[in-house]
Structure formats: structure tokens, C-alpha cells
Design a protein that fits this description.
Shape: elongated
Largest sheet: 3 strands, mixed
Radius of gyration: 22 Å
Distance between the termini: 24 Å
CATH architecture of the largest domain: Orthogonal Bundle
CATH topology of the largest domain: Arc Repressor Mutant, subunit A
Structural class: alpha+beta
Number of strands: 5
Number of helices: 6
């Protein structure tokens, strides 16, 4: 079991995580006194959304999200129309119900909203480590 000073742990976190993922246990110490232990955990698949793979994304929904450099500057859009995924997400985040969105935008379908949400989930399913 390796012992690492807290300053070294902060500056080399990614390397330490790789070592832990390889099976090594690491103690982090401040003034030569242990304060934390890094060990690998066996994640329960699907229970918390921390998987490394992209979120489940139905192929039928994926086809509804399009990108074209000539439409909305290449941002992801719904079925090639000039309504961006971010527009739909913004409406929902702003408190509009799905029914209200569909009423105000009659060219959208319920599956378009599902596709926008699934796209957002897939886009947010990557690891972010801040130091």
C-alpha cells in the first residue's frame, strides 16, 4: 500500500486514480498522518448513472437528432428543423410541460422531446474531474 503526501495527491489525482483502478490501494497523508484511503469500488451497473459508457440511447430517438453545418451553425437540431435540442431543453428547464411545448410547437412530436432528453443525458455522461 503506497503512502502519498496530500500535496502530491492533489497535483497527481488522475495518475493516482489510474493506479487505484489497476488494483493498488493508496493512503493520502498530511504531515505523515493518514487522512484518506483510495480504493477501487465495484460500481453497481446502472444504479447511479456513473457508468463510463454513454447513457442508453434508442436508435430511433438518435435518428431524430441531426447536425448540419448549414442549419443552426451545426448545433444539434430536431429532425433537421431549425429548432435546436438546447431550445427544447431550455423550454423544459424553464418550467414548460411537455404538453405545453407540443401545443406551442405543433411540428414537434412527443418522441422529439424524448430524443432531446436522451441526447442531453448522453452528452452529460462523461467523467468530469476538477482539480
Amino acid at each position: 500500500m503506497a503512502v502519498v503526501k496530500i500535496h502530491d495527491a492533489k497535483t497527481n489525482l488522475s495518475k493516482l486514480i489510474a493506479r487505484v483502478e489497476a488494483g493498488e490501494e493508496i493512503i493520502i497523508a498530511r504531515d505523515d498522518k493518514p487522512v484518506a484511503k483510495l480504493t477501487a469500488v465495484e460500481a453497481a451497473r446502472g444504479s447511479y448513472g456513473f457508468e463510463e459508457e454513454a447513457a442508453p440511447y434508442d436508435a430511433g430517438l438518435a435518428a431524430r437528432i441531426t447536425t448540419d453545418a448549414e442549419v443552426c451553425g451545426g448545433r444539434p437540431c430536431i429532425r433537421g428543423m431549425r429548432i435546436r435540442v438546447s431550445d427544447v431543453l431550455g423550454l423544459l428547464a424553464g418550467g414548460m410541460t411537455r404538453a405545453a411545448v407540443l401545443k406551442d410547437y405543433p411540428y414537434l412530436e412527443a418522441a422529439d422531446i424524448d430524443a432531446a432528453l436522451a441526447y442531453a443525458a448522453g452528452s452529460a455522461s462523461h467523467r468530469v474531474i476538477r482539480t
